[in-house]
Write a structure and sequence with these properties.
- The chain is of the alpha+beta class.
- The chain has one domain.
- Helix content is 21%, strand content 28%.
- Strand 4 and strand 5 form a beta hairpin.
- It starts with a strand and ends in a 21-residue tail after the last helix.
Amino acid sequence: MIEVTRINDSIYFVNPDLILTLEATPDTIITLTTGEKLMVKESPELLIERFIALKRRIVCELPTINPPSGGEHVQPLLPEA
């Protein structure tokens, strides 16, 4: 979730995966995939920076998976067609 500030100074947290568009008017309008629109004080550039920082944090926290050594067989996650 990324933090945004509504025009009335209330703080909201938005799931950036639901953001469809960012419009730069005097204020920034966020359009969500649900059709809801939010007017916020942050610039689109700042929101994009927050989105990238969140995604980096998520990716950096992923566990490292080491391949098996030798002749070990790894069971596929999905059944073969």
